[in-house]
Structure formats: C-alpha cells, structure tokens
Write a structure and sequence with these properties.
CATH class: Alpha Beta
Radius of gyration: 15 Å
Number of strands: 9
Number of domains: 1
Shape: globular
Distance between the termini: 39 Å
CATH architecture: 3-Layer(aba) Sandwich
Helix content: 25-40%
CATH superfamily: Vaccinia Virus protein VP39
Strand content: 25-35%
Length: 199
C-alpha cells in the first residue's frame, strides 16, 4: 500500500488524536471571510475533508451557512454528526465525489493536498460540477510541485502538490477565476492557499 492509499486508515485509527491536536483557535478565519464574502447567510457550503468539523465547519455554521461535510474517516464524521446535528455529514472519498447538486462555496482545507498529483488533477472537474455559478472554491496546496511525507502518530503522512501554473490552468479549464493565491501565508500557519470563483 502506498503512503497516499494509507491516508483513510490513518485518519480512522487516529481520529481522537487528530481532533485533540487540530488547532481550533480560528487562525483560518480571515480566509474564511474571503471564501464567504460574496455569499448570503443560509447558503450551502461543501467542506471536503471536513475532519472533526472544528474549526472550519464550526465557523461556517456559526455564520449561518448550511454545511455538507465529507471525510474518509468514519470516527471523524461521527464527531461531526454529534457536534452539528442539523447539518449533513458523509463518510466518503472526495476522489469519488458525486452529490448531484451544487454549492455556493467549496472548501478543501488541508485535505486536498493528501491526494496524489493524478488524483488532484481529476478533482477539478468534480469541483466544477459541484459549484454553482459564482461559487467560491478554496483549497490548500504545497508551494511548488513535489511530494512530502511527514508523520502523524508515528505513521507516514503523505502530501503532494502540483506546480502553481498547473493549478491555474486546471482552474481556468474548469471555469474558475483565481481571486487570490498566497504562498506560505505567514498569517495562516504558513499555508499555501488558493481562492477561486466559478464564472
């Protein structure tokens, strides 16, 4: 089994540890402000790789949005359902995303970059098919093309990134306009962030 294929099992085995160490102080809030700035409260937001629902889904729900969350880890989705019973959380793999509906915004924060480069390329038509006209899309990537293997709870943790120009091309080919791209944002834990909008 490859490191990438091991991701679902890792987050299932270590769901409690992930929830415990996942920062919940809201440092992502300025970017969430940008994600939802064109939207009206009550809009539907898709959170891909939602984890335990905190802080991203919690923040969006607190703003009055209706969240649909997807994650490969059943224990993490169970936590989401316990915490946010009025919202819709599914166990599933974003690579097979097919909800047959569109959303006002899509966010894949620190989740999309666990996919292989090939799987990332294949996600852009799925983003497009789930994005309403004018919808915003936000995801995090690496700063440049490559693979990095970190560690979580003593197990290898896979990350990959395409080249920024390839992300731009994929977004454009699938009907998105890049609004912002910040490499290793020092105000957001060093995350490399993409914000785009469906034309």
């Amino acid at each position: 089994m490859s490191y990438a294929d091991a991701i679902p099992g890792l987050y299932a085995r270590h769901a409690e540890a992930f929830d415990r160490v996942r920062g919940k102080d809201g440092f992502e809030r300025p970017w969430l402000d940008r994600l939802v700035s064109p939207l009206h409260p009550g809009g539907h937001v898709l959170d891909l790789g939602c984890g335990s629902g905190e802080p991203i889904a919690a923040d969006l729900i607190g703003r009055g949005f209706i969240v649909t969350g997807l994650d490969v880890s059943e224990p993490l989705i169970r936590l989401c359902r316990e915490r946010f019973p009025g919202h819709d959380f599914h166990v599933g793999d974003m690579r097979e995303l097919s909800l047959e509906r569109t959303f006002a915004a899509i966010v894949a924060w620190h989740s999309f970059f666990h996919l292989t480069p090939e799987a990332q390329r294949a996600m852009f038509p799925r983003f497009a098919s789930h994005a309403a006209s004018g919808a915003t899309l936000m995801f995090t990537s690496g700063p440049s093309a490559g693979v990095a293997v970190g560690e979580f709870e003593g197990e290898p943790l896979y990350h990959a990134s395409l080249d920024p120009e390839e992300y731009r091309s994929l977004l454009s080919e699938n009907g998105f306009v890049v609004l912002q791209h910040v490499i290793e944002d020092p105000t957001c834990g060093g995350a490399t962030i993409w914000l785009a909008q469906k034309s």
